[in-house]
Specification:
The chain is α/β, with parallel strands linked by helices. Helices cover about 45% and strands about 10% of the residues.
Length: about 500
């Protein structure tokens, strides 16, 4: 008989019998998944939040709540970036002509979340250009974490995408009937000569000419999967690099209903009283990036006690099967190296130390936060004017995007691009995409100094004045200043000098 635990019993065991909980959690991972699968799924969520996380930085929190940020510091923080001597390249003399005859059709199957798929689309256009091939609208895979089956046309404005690139490459919405057999299902049922599985990470243009072009010439079609990160960032013609930039920053517009919802959220952030005569407010977008997947992969301790540690270890074992190498380091070592994502409490302390007052309008761009509202409560103490999609928009306004991770992420991306300041709690695809796109438009983006913050948060004796000063000094040059791309770095994160030209 399946064991059920009511709310009453959960409360009883958590208060009266902590030993029962510890023992159950200790032995839960060894039971057969088949025996416990429905139960383990429900308990995984329950146990990860069994002990509500307490504040880990009480002294700093008290200091932040009492601190009055000087007006001059606030003014400097909100001041837009001055012109930095770079602007998007506009090469009016560049010839635009399609090849007389396409060499065949290129298909790509893109995994990952929205921002990883976005980079894959840009690379797919570049590869089609390199091969003088016709690009089939990329297929977006169902992500194993987000479970979203949205297609390209449900996320991006398909007409704009095709029309904006019409002078660069040929693009088709679907294959002609003679190639209709070339589907995702076809490649999932066996080895196929038209599928390229061997594309190395950061492959060169020559690799595609030597390995994919012969397949195109023989069969008229080539399907490349996996494709994420399968094109190098270096040693490519300037025209190819600028084409990738054009796709990322100009050709990939979201579908109209996402832009409309995004504008609605931006207007409500700017004008919270819905009064057209009031002056507009400034707002910060905070990407928390603190979901269970992120917390487990980091192998760090987040203050949830033994129950949380065991729940994350179990999740890590199931998802990555022991391949997370960070688990060999202690929590202190990981934090000193800046490899632990900031908790909502810690990102709140960072914002307060930088000079944001408790009246700051804050928009949370995040998937479900690990630990729920209990984890966010400290952040709310520091910044009570927190908003997100659900607090700003009605259920009816959200109905076209609700339950679809890619569309929800697209809304957050749109709102982020219209914010005065963007900051992410830890590096990742969203952080990298915003860093590049906002640099392209000369917008302010704060990059947390993860190593510095890890060391400061480990220091149990530091007071608020010392913490605040160290944060300000350590982030002085991390607020959107242009950084020239180094070898092997992504042009989507660092668009100078490939995507931008000196004025």
């Amino acid at each position: 008989m399946m064991m059920q635990v009511s709310q009453h019993h959960r409360s009883y065991y958590s208060q009266k019998s902590p030993a029962f909980l510890s023992l159950f959690l200790l032995f839960l991972p060894i039971f057969s998944p088949d025996l416990f699968s429905p139960l383990s799924r429900s308990y995984s969520s329950l146990f990860s939040e069994w002990n509500a996380p307490q504040s880990r930085h009480v002294r700093l929190l008290q200091g932040a709540l009492q601190w009055q940020t000087p007006f001059k510091q606030q003014l400097e923080l909100w001041t837009p970036l001055s012109h930095q001597g770079w602007k998007p390249c506009q090469d009016s003399q560049k010839p635009h002509s399609l090849p007389e005859k396409s060499r065949g059709y290129i298909q790509v199957f893109l995994d990952g979340g929205l921002n990883q798929q976005r980079m894959g689309i840009c690379d797919a256009v570049a590869v089609a250009k390199i091969l003088n091939a016709t690009l089939v609208i990329p297929h977006l895979e169902v992500n194993s974490v987000w479970q979203d089956s949205s297609s390209f046309a449900e996320v991006f404005d398909l007409d704009h995408f095709i029309n904006s690139l019409s002078d660069e490459i040929s693009i088709v919405r679907e294959l002609p009937v003679e190639y209709s057999w070339s589907t995702r299902e076809y490649y999932g049922t066996g080895i196929r000569e038209t599928r390229i599985k061997t594309a190395p990470v950061h492959a060169s243009a020559d690799w595609y000419l030597e390995n994919v072009l012969p397949v195109l010439q023989r069969y008229g079609i080539a399907a490349i999967s996996p494709f994420s990160h399968r094109l190098a960032f270096d040693n490519l013609p300037k025209s190819i690099q600028q084409l990738r930039c054009m796709v990322n920053f100009e050709s990939l517009l979201f579908v109209p209903h996402i832009r409309i919802l995004g504008d609605t959220l931006v207007n409500r952030l700017r004008y919270p009283n819905n009064f057209s005569g009031q002056s507009s407010e400034k707002y910060v977008v905070l990407h928390l990036r603190f979901d269970k997947d992120m917390a487990a992969h980091s192998a760090c301790d987040f203050g949830g006690g033994r129950a949380e540690k065991l729940a994350l270890a179990r999740y890590r074992q199931v998802i990555w099967q022991g391949r997370v190498l960070k688990t060999q380091f202690t929590n202190e070592e990981l934090r000193n190296q800046g490899r632990c994502p900031l908790t909502p409490e810690e990102i709140g302390l960072l914002l307060a130390a930088l000079g944001f007052s408790n009246n700051t309008r804050l928009y949370l761009a995040s998937h479900k936060v690990y630990g729920g509202e209990a984890r966010i409560s400290t952040l709310r103490k520091l910044f009570p004017r927190i908003e997100d999609k659900r607090s700003l928009a009605t259920a009816d306004e959200r109905k076209k995007v609700e339950g679809k991770a890619s569309l929800l992420a697209a809304v957050d991306y749109y709102v982020s691009m219209h914010s005065d300041i963007f900051i992410s709690a830890s590096p990742g695809n969203m952080h990298n995409a915003m860093l590049g796109h906002r640099a392209y438009q000369n917008l302010k983006t704060i990059r947390p100094n993860m190593a510095l913050l890890g060391q400061l948060f480990l220091n149990q004796s530091i007071g608020w004045p010392g913490f605040q000063n160290a944060v300000v000094v350590g982030h002085k040059n991390r607020q959107g200043q242009i950084r020239v791309r180094k070898e092997k770095q992504s042009i989507y994160t660092y668009p100078v000098p490939d995507c931008m030209c000196r004025t």
